[in-house]
Specification:
Order of helices and strands: HH
Radius of gyration: 20 Å
Largest sheet: none
Helix content: 55-70%
Bound molecules: zinc ion
Shape: rod-shaped
Number of domains: 1
Amino acid sequence: MVLVWIGIVVGILLVVILIVKATKTNPREIAGMTMRCKKCGTETGGMTCPKCNKTFGV
Ligand SMILES: [Zn+2]
């Protein structure tokens, strides 16, 4: 019976891992493109653009 529980736990863990991976990759794939800066087009990955952030204060 212990092996059955181990199998169930492993199966649940695999499902959880797949869901986590899906939720991490979906936002970009749903948008159909990677997160890019609106000004220069540099891929920012959802973060502030490093190029425009430097020149912003100048
Ligand atoms: Zn930029």
